[in-house]
Amino acid sequence: xxxxxxxxLRFTRSEWLRALEGMPALDAERRLxxxxxxxxxxxxxxxxxxxxxLTRAQGLVPLPALNEIVASGGPATxxxxxxxxxxxxxxxxxxxxxxxxxxxxxxxxxxxxxxGSRARLVGSMLHRITYHYWFHIGEILAIRxxxxxxxxxxxxxxxxxxAPYRPEAPGSPA
Length: 174
What we know:
By secondary structure, the protein is an all-alpha fold. It has helices at about 5-20, 25-30, 40-60, 65-70, 80-100, 105, 120-145, 160; strands at about 110, 120. Helix 1 (about 5-20) packs parallel to helix 7, helix 3 (about 40-60) packs parallel to helix 5 (about 80-100) and helix 3 (about 40-60) packs antiparallel against helix 7.
């Protein structure tokens, strides 16, 4: 059974996609400084999922270009939305089997960090990336409002049906 933290991440991803619905490609490349472009935000979240769940957890870097285009601390870029969404879909498809296999012991294990930093718990990193998505959902919607987009989501979707609270199942794998 999928761990509840992974289910919450999946719900958050769906809310993030909802914030992108109807996004015009050219508007996604606009940068309203000091904010990043929406294309950058999409690629940045792909980069973050790759960094945590593929690179640090498994030693894989399927899309090394993300490290150059949308990494934290890099120069501002305005990549095309379609390209970044494709990268995000490829990365999340690659991460999902690993995330689906996480049991309690895995969630409580340490995920290697960058050289010279302390390793954090996988569960803490699941929280971190989930909250990171929510941060960028707000940013995307603010940018879209500034661009004059209408009919945007104005509240969290149906969490009760799609991602209700549930404790770990008794006897879930350690």
